[in-house]
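Hello,

I think I submitted the adenosine-5'-triphosphate job twice by accident. Can you confirm which output corresponds to this input? Input:
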Amino acid sequence: MITIEHLTKFIGIQKDPILHDVNFQFHKGEMIAIVGSSGSGKSTLLQCLSLNQKWDQGSFNVDGVDVLKLGFMGKQKIKKEWAYLEQSPEFNPKRTALKNVIIGQRGQTPWWRRLSGTVRSDDYMGAMDVIESLGLLEKAHFKMGQLSGGERQRIAISRALVHGAKVILADEPVVGLDPKSAESVLEQLRTLCKEERVTVLTVIPLDLAERYGSRIIGLSKGEIVFDVKGRRLTQREKSLI
Ligand SMILES: Nc1ncnc2c1ncn2[C@@H]1O[C@H](COP(=O)(O)OP(=O)(O)OP(=O)(O)O)[C@@H](O)[C@H]1O
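Support: Only one job matched these inputs. Its output is below.
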């Protein structure tokens, strides 16, 4: 069980908080869609949950552990397990998809391994299994530049999983993708939730949120204005965001 209480976040010298008294709980395996208009605080929420942004107020409890009170190493562990996926994930374009997955990003593997590209056989097997589960086995040896936007997103998800992600915080993972690729990315995320008990919080458009989210959280001006499970939104709820 994960509990977020009274999360409040200010940025810079702004008087009003970007996130204000955000409270919600969730379980492993949920696929939570975050919706809201531009500037409502969706990215900031995901960044606070990934600990990429400091919390100004609030408590964050994961399976009985008070995350904000953890020391440096404890927070590093949470950062690995709570992977923030950007809209345009960064890769080394000269390396194959497989190598990008194995070598990981800064903070996931030691610098000398990222530089040398050294691959161990057990890393190789584990990465191939994950890439296959995301439906990209035949593209594993392609250079990153040869992959489509949707395939790059799925490689980013594979990379996060190989490096220990249990929660995926995907910030607009389908922006710029054609409808088929967008559905494929969301389908894979949903499968991960159902079959692997990965938890996904993702910022996606409303129509896709209604189709793929097991739960939809609406944000407006940094506050939660609805939190619904297992159903489409009412017109009234839609008017709140
Ligand atoms: N570094 C920053 N400095 C100042 N203001 C910021 C900063 N980052 C975010 N903000 C402000 O915080 C508010 C919320 O931003 P955030 O990116 O979380 O919104 P969002 O809902 O993800 O928006 P979008 O859908 O446009 O990506 C916005 O008003 C934004 O201008």
